[in-house]
Specification:
This protein is mainly α. It is built from 20 helices and 3 strands. Helices cover 71% and strands 2% of the residues. Strand 2 and strand 3 form a beta hairpin. The N and C termini lie far apart (107 Å).
Amino acid sequence: MSAASRTAAVTLAMSAAGLAAAPASPLGLPSVQEVLEVASLRNYNTRLVVTSTTALGVAAGIVGAFLLLRKRSLMGDALAHSTLPGVALAYIAMTLAGGAGKSLPGLMAGAAASGVLGVLVMLAIRNTTRLRDDVAMGFVLSVSFGFGLALLGVVQKMPGSGAAGLESFIYGKTASMVFADAVLIHAVAVAASLAAILLFKEFTLLCFDEKFAAAEGWPALWLDIVLLALVTAVTVIGLQAVGLILIIAFLITPPAAARFWTDRLSVMVALSAVIGAVSGWLGASISALAPRLPAGAVIVLVTSAVFLFSMVFAPARGVLARQLRHRRLKDKVDRQHLLRAAFEILEARAQADGAALANRPFSRDELLAKRTWRPRHIDRVIRKEAAFGHLERPGDGLLRLSESGFGEAARITRNHRLWEVYLVTHADIAPSHVDRDADMVEHVLEAELVARLEEVLREAGAWVPSPHEIPPEAGPLQPAAP
C-alpha cells in the first residue's frame, strides 16, 4: 500500500470514530483541535454517540435510584445477563428468516423478551418458594449467562452467518451506532424517565414500605413489575452503549454516588440523573478522543470516579465529613467530661469543708485522678477548653474555671444527674451502672429535652439530686413523694 493510500485509510478510520484528521500530539495526546471538535459535537458520529449515551445516563440514573432503594442491585445484574440468550436467539431467528441478523431493533427485541422472562422467573421463585431474593437472582444470572454463551457458540458455527462482532453486546460497541439506533435509544430513555417521574409517589411508597403499600390497597406486585420493566428497558437500550456486563454499573453507581450528597429522595433522583448524564457525556467524549478505549468501560470508570469522590468528600454522608463530625463530637464529649470533673472536684471540696460551693483553683493531678486519662490527652483537652475560654491559669500550675466555664460545668453536671435519675426511675438501670449509661447520652441533650425531662421527673415525684448521693443503707432508689 502506498503512503497516500495509508494516509487516506487513517483519515477514513478517524472519521468513522468521530474525529477529523488533525496533527497528532508529540506525546500521543489529542490535540487542542480534536478536543474542541469533540466538545462542540461538530462531527456527526460523535454527536450521535455522545447524545445517546447522555440520554441513557439520565434514564439509568432515574430508574437506578429506585432499584438501589429497593435493594435490587443484584437483580439488575441478573436481568442484564438474562438478555444475552435473547440476543443470540434473535440473531439466529433473523438469520434463518433470511433477514439481517445484526438488526439492532430485532436484537433489542430479543434481549427485552429474555430479560422480561428472567424477571418473571425471579419473581416466581421469590413469591412461590421460601428462597430468598439473592438465591433467585443468582440462579437466573448464572443460568442465563451460561445459556447465552452456549448460544453464541452455536451462532459462531452457523455456516455463512457472519456473526463476527455479535459478542460486542457483552462489552458494548458505540462505534457501530447509526441514526436509527440513536433514535431508538432516545425514545426508550425518554419514555422510561417519564414513566419513573410520573410514578414517583408510587415507587417511593414501594421502596420504603412495600407491605404498607399493599395494606393500603396499592398494587405492590404490579408496581414492582413496572419498575423491573423500566429497568429491563434501560438495560436493553444500554447494550449498544456499555454492554450487558457493564450496564449494571451504569444503573447502580450514579444513584449510589448521589445518595452520599442528600437525604431527600427527590434530590437524590435528580442528582443521580445528572451524574448519569455527565458520566455518559464525558465517557463517550473521552472514548472519541482515544478510539482504542471502549466507550462502555470509560463511562463506567468516569461514573466510578464520581462515586469515589462523593464517598470521600460529600458533606451529607461522605467519609471525610463523617470523620470530622465524629471528631468534633469526641472533642465535645471530652471537654464536657473535663468540666464536669472540675465541678465535682469543687463540690467534693465544699462538702469536705462544710462550706458553700465556690470556684477555686484545682490541679491537673486532681483532674487525672478524677478522669483516669493519659497525661498527654488531658493536656490536649485542657488546651482546647482554655481556647474556648472555660479554663484559666491563675499560676503555680493550677487551673480554675472561668465565669462562663463555671456556669457551663454546672449545667453539664446538672444534665448528667438529671439523666441518671431518669434512667434509674424510668429505665430500671442499677445506680451502680447508671453513670456509664448517662455518659453515653448526656452530650446530646438539648435545652428542650432537658425541660421535658424535668417535667416528667417532677410529675412522677422522682426529683432527687443524684443516685450516687443516696447512702447504701437507704435501699434502692424510689420516687420521692410529691
